[in-house]
Every structure is written in structure tokens, then in C-alpha cells.
Design brief:
165 residues, mainly alpha, 0% strand
């Protein structure tokens, strides 16, 4: 059998990827994660009487903790198989991947196992975040110099930075 014939046979019997279904799952489960986060924020604001900005920080910490906890129990990985991209795009997915990496290296010790494996993954993500922040900062600087983008007033800058932290 020639290579082209073989490729045709493989293509004919290959499973088709259900892109539309996967997108719907990702949208639904990503939205479900966000709904849980909003519920935590509502609880912190309305039940524990915490300020909105502080409640947002508590909510993020809670979601990261739950993601790491459910990863350690093996629940988040099963959830991620059904959730598709909806499970790994939010911050919970990043916490899941860091926890998985840390758990893989636990037999090698705390420093050379857990910390080293955890930051193998996080290192790449952090490098991309810093580089993209730098590139977009340079683009914004030039757009401001050309008069296309307005300069940000101190109140807006503190709001943006406060929202990140």
C-alpha cells in the first residue's frame, strides 16, 4: 500500500473532533466556575461584610485553594476531562496544573521535587506574562505618544492595579 493510499484509509476511519460540542462544554463549565467565584464574592460581601475589593481577593484565593484541594483529591482532573478548556482557562486551571506538577515531584523532596516541578510549569507562564506585558506596555506607550490612546489618570491606574491585586 502506498503512503497516499494509507493516508486516505486513515482519514476515512479517523474520529471527527466535535469542536462545537467541546466549545459548548468549555463555555458552560468556564461559566460555572465563574458563577462559583461570583457566589463566593457575594458571600464575602453580604454575609461577612467585607469590602468589594477585598472580597474579590478572598474569592480568588478561595478558588485557587479549592482547585488545588480538588486536584489533590483527584476530582479536578475528572472535572477537567468534561469541562475541556472551561476547566483550564480560568485561574483554577493554572492552580490545577501547578498542583499536579507539585504532586508529581513529591517523592523527590520539597525543594528538588515539589518546588522544582511546580515552577517548571509556572516559569513558562510567568515568562510569557512578563514578556506580553512588556510588549503591550511598549505598544500603549507609542499609542499615547501618537495621541491615539489617552493617558490614564492616577485614579484609573490605582483601580486597575487594585483589581489585579
Amino acid at each position: 500500500m502506498k503512503t497516499t493510499q494509507y493516508a486516505e484509509v486513515i482519514d476515512k476511519h479517523k474520529m471527527k473532533t466535535p469542536y462545537l460540542r467541546n466549545m459548548a462544554y468549555a463555555f458552560f463549565f468556564g461559566g460555572l466556575i465563574c458563577l462559583v467565584g461570583q457566589t463566593f464574592q457575594w458571600i464575602y460581601i453580604n454575609i461577612f461584610n467585607v469590602e468589594k475589593q477585598t472580597a474579590a481577593t478572598y474569592m480568588v484565593v478561595s478558588m485557587i485553594f479549592l482547585s488545588a484541594f480538588f486536584t489533590a483529591l483527584g476530582i479536578y482532573d475528572k472535572f477537567g476531562q468534561h469541562a475541556k478548556a472551561g476547566g483550564f482557562i480560568p485561574i483554577t486551571g493554572f492552580a490545577n496544573s501547578m498542583t499536579c506538577s507539585a504532586l508529581e515531584g513529591r517523592s523527590e523532596g520539597i525543594i528538588l521535587g515539589i518546588a522544582a516541578n511546580m515552577f517548571k510549569l509556572a516559569g513558562g507562564v510567568l515568562v510569557i506574562a512578563v514578556i506580553s506585558g512588556f510588549v503591550f506596555g511598549i505598544i500603549r506607550y507609542f499609542l499615547m505618544q501618537l495621541g491615539i490612546a489617552p493617558e490614564l489618570d492616577p485614579h484609573t491606574v490605582s483601580t486597575i492595579i487594585g483589581g489585579i491585586l
